[in-house]
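Re: [help] complex structure
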Amino acid sequence: MKHTLAVLVENRPGVLTHISGLISRRAFNIESIAAGYTEEAETTRITIVVEADDMELEQVVNQLSKLVDVIKITDLTGIDGIHRELALIKVKASSETRSDIVDIVDIFRAKIVDVNRETMVIELTGEETKIDALCEVLADHGIIEIVRTGKVALSRGPVPAKDL
Amino acid sequence: MMESRSDQMIKPGSERNLTGAEILLKALAEENVELIFGYPGGAVLPLYDALLQSPIRHVLVRHEQAAAHAADGYARVSGKPGVCLATSGPGATNLVTGIANAYMDSVPLVVLTGQVPTTLLGTDSFQEVDITGITMPITKHSYLVKDVRDIPRIVKEAFYIAGSGRPGPVAIDLPKDVQAATAVPETASLNLKSYKVFGKGNAGQIMEAAKAIRTSKRPVLYAGGGVISAGADGALRELCRKTGLPVVTTLMGIGSLPHGHPNLLGMVGMHGTVTANYAVDDCDLLIAVGVRFDDRVTSGLGHRFATKAKVIHIDIDPAEIGKVVRANIPIVGDARQILEDIRERAEPPEIADWWRQIRLWQESHPLNYAQTDLSPQLIMETIGELAGETTVVATDVGQHQMWAAQFYPVQRSRHFLTSSGLGAMGFGLPAAIGAQLARPEALVFLIVGDGGFQMTMQELATIVQYRLPVKIALLNNGVLGMVRQLQGVFCGERFSEIQLHANPDFLKIAEAYGILGIRVKTAADVEKAVQKALAHQGPVLMDFLISADEWVWPMVPPGKAITEMLGR
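Output below.
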């Protein structure tokens, strides 16, 4: 099953390489990894989505925890929270198809962030499945390229991941 | 000299300013470093210049790989982190095998490398390699120092990380301009809020473990290198005394109980004793201490290993728990404390029947060998008998290593040094050098094959230069014996590239270095030769001409369960 891990690390050079290197050499099955600064200047938060059974998950968490720069790992999988990904989709859009695409974009509550004579770029934030669904519908119009950030996740309620 | 940014930030004219190199050596001295194994080069010129004024002794090896292995041998014997030093580029890459070796066997090392100046980093400049990148998977942690003022803190952290928890190598890469930059050295403190070291085990789990021992019918304690690195050998003996538990050890665990101890069933695994393997297979409680269920023990078959047993797994590294074998009672923490705590709560189980079974196995499957013209096993036994129990034994990798593990009567922990996890040929001689420098008063024996010996043979010069009286037992069969044995068993005796046709006359090699050489051709001469070697003040090389047809038995073929031994 898929697990979403919030990994808090010291914001030091090479820390992301440490994490990704460990993941690849221990042959863990990672679906996405997204990193960015946090409310604390010295801390980076990395959201990792990993496909693993219980035993594998335990290994992922234990091995990552051993890295000197890793502060805390929280499994957000069973916790009520907000899971989001951002996608930018460049799709073919002629004057004939443009209004169709605008309708689709409205239904998905996505945004059009670039238009020209031949294409549009659509921005969508949402859960993975919602982005998948939009991509599927837009495929009929011809997708030129897609970029996705990988999932980020935050628990609901007042308690931060570091205290969970 | 390259000017660094940090240089400009320090106010000029301060008399207490030191160079990065001086600060480093001062910081090493504060960590009680007495000895560095190293090899100089362009990117460490400032460091070697500063060494001239430092009380720290430098041992000049003949190849950087030997510097890492010697620091490793030093650390295994002394229990303190070993320190090695090399220049950038090829100096650093030559250390890699030694670092990997220490990582696999959880040996504390602090590895210092020179690096090109920070202004040239990333430009593929002369002798530049990304050594922190290269060694990332084989170090516990690493640092690329960019500011001279960070040196005291980094050194302090490196020694703390290397020696605490599950020990391992830590690398510090020092750009040349950082070595030359100056600063006022400040007292450093650790800044490691995310690094955790486990101490006492969970009290509830310890109670559970004690209860499981009391109610077990067929328990076995499986002791590994963690027992030795935690200094838990005494605690293990006391637990045995109180509970009567039978004990098997891994290759790394040899010495955790003295050879001949009534509770010791010998080594478990691929070349383990039949009794140890049968006992592990049949036990109802496996108390695993400081082990990682390596595939040379389990044959890579975690799911077929000790299948009838409830498993207590004691380890300081939480990532080892459940990695290969599911533990019923995991206890994370320091092996010595945990074994002491378990002993306090444990009561002897009723295992007289179990011991009867074990004694039956021991009687019907003793560890023995064929008496040939010159049996290698006899050489091990004779050296063990004559050298005495305080002797430190280093081995290389191969058949001789397994004969030493099986037949050399190791009596103490930290007295048997061997490359276990990595199985790195060439380890033996430099490790013996490190051991002899750690314990100048001790007798140090190297047991080595003619293949591995030739991988680091150049270190004979180091032995002579530093007057190290290492006694070398070279088991010379003219072949790569362990590979030959594997080809014999698995490739239908189609022997491929295992003949060492152009071996030199090793006595002439010894003579060339001014080392006493003794050739031994028959069993009858073994005792006399060993006595002569022991009587000689300086280093000795004994060239034992053994047959290529001597094989290591018993043997569990890879992929077979540990009860499916050949040659039992």
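DSSP finds 24 helices and 20 strands in chain B.
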